[in-house]
Each structure stands twice: as C-alpha cells, then as structure tokens.
Amino acid sequence: MTLKVEHLVGGYSSIPVLKDISFEVPSHSLVGLIGLNGAGKSTTINHVIGLLRPMKGTIELNGLSLQEDAAAYKNKIAYIPEIPVLYEELTLKEHLELTMMAYQLDPKEAWQKANRYLKIFRLDNKLDWFPINFSKGMKQKVMIVCALLPKVELLLVDEPFLGLDPLATHDLLMLLDEEKQAGTAILMSTHVLSTAEEVCDSFVMIDDGQLLAAGTLADLQEQSGQSDASLSKI
Ligand code: ATP
C-alpha cells in the first residue's frame, strides 16, 4: 500500500499554493513532510485527506485515485490534525465510541486498544470529561488516541509535537513506530527535526509549494544547501 502524489497542483482558490509536488509514502514507512511556515505542508495533507481537490495531478493509494475511488478508502485513512477538533457536547468516552462506530470497529477489541492508549497518555481516569475540561495538549492526546483506534492503511499527522510534553512526545513516537511496523504508511508534517529524525525513514522538503528535496536528512542537506529555505532554517 503506497501513497503516491504526482505533480500535485492545488490550493484554496484559483491561485495554486502547491505548484508541482510529487512524492511517495510506502507502507511500513514514516515520511516526514518539512518546510518553513507557509511552505504548504498542511495544504498537502488537506489534499490527501480530501478536504481540498487537486487542480492538477493525482493522489493515489495503491494505484487507486483518492478522489475518484474514495469509497475504496472508507475506514482506511486516519488523520491527526494540527489543531484538535472535538465535539464540545461529547465526553472523552463518547468521542471514543463515535470513532469506533465511524470505523465500524469491534467494540471489545477497540476498547482493549483504547484502554492501553488512555493509560499511556494518562487519560484513563478522564473518560467522563468534556473537551472544555481538557488543556490543548490533552485535547491533542484525545485526537491521537481516536486516530490510532482503527487499523488504517494511511495515517496523516499534522504537526503533532507542538502542544505535547516530552513524555507524550516520546510515547507518540513509540506508537507511530508501532503503526509503521504493523504496515501503515505514515505522512507526518513537522518542524521538530530533532524529534522527527528519531522515527522518520525519509523526508520530503517543500518550499513555497514546490518540492525542494527528498530523501534522508543528509540527502536533504545536500540537495537544499544552496536554497534560502535550507534545512538549518527549519
Ligand atoms: P505552517 O508550518 O505555518 O503550519 P504550512 O507549511 O503547513 O505552514 P500551509 O498552512 O499549507 O503551510 O499554507 C500554505 C499557504 O497556503 C500559505 O501561503 C497560506 O497563507 C495559504 N493558506 C493556508 N490555509 C489557507 C486557507 N484556508 N485559505 C487560503 N489560503 C490558505
């Protein structure tokens, strides 16, 4: 199962933000999407999850178009957004139940997984809490737990480390590595290179909506060395 983005042109209006982006994320791999503020990382992810339609180019998962064959991907993609989005009127328990229903998970198996993740992120005694009771980092953890409940083919993660404490960052890295080992293709945008370096197999570096370099950090350093958006500035 490989995510293949080819010659993607897209954005929010008729003026493209992404000008010509191509990269791949194979299964069993975690690819870091890096670039300066405004480079187009979230916009790229928004196209992959279908929030935005490409103006040109293709986005395929295992050879099927994510736009034209969307039904084939039902329950096969999960997404952890940069800004947590929770339902104010639902408790943590209800958010988990909603996720289980949406992905049609077996409740017994899903609760086993959920209980493990809740314990890891120290949310296990907060099942009856509403979002208003949670800090930003705690909300982020709730989003992570929900996204990890289903077994998906493709996991998209947008800037996961910004609101997380060091312990939670360590725990998330461990869980992402688990997902990767289980076969999931993971695309993660981040600014925190030192942390990403621990788990990412390769990187895609974009600048002003264009692919600047791809490969290992050493490859990127070499390929982007002459650019204004060199690695040292990210
Ligand atoms: P950051 O590191 O700050 O999160 P990013 O690399 O994720 O940045 P994007 O959020 O993808 O960057 O933004 C890329 C460009 O698209 C920017 O010029 C931004 O102003 C523009 N943009 C982002 N969101 C919207 C929107 N909803 N409507 C119009 N333009 C947008």
From TrEMBL:
Q: Does the keyword Nucleotide-binding apply?
A: yes
InterPro entries xref list? AAA+_ATPase, ABC_transporter-like_ATP-bd, ABC_transporter-like_CS, ABC_Transporter_VariousFunc, P-loop_NTPase
Q: Name one Pfam family in it.
A: ABC_tran
In Gene Ontology terms, what is one molecular function of this protein?
A: ATP binding
| Occurrences of domain ABC transporter (ranges) | 3-233
Q: Which UniProt keywords apply?
A: ATP-binding, Nucleotide-binding, Transport
Can you say what this protein is called?
A: ABC transporter ATP-binding protein
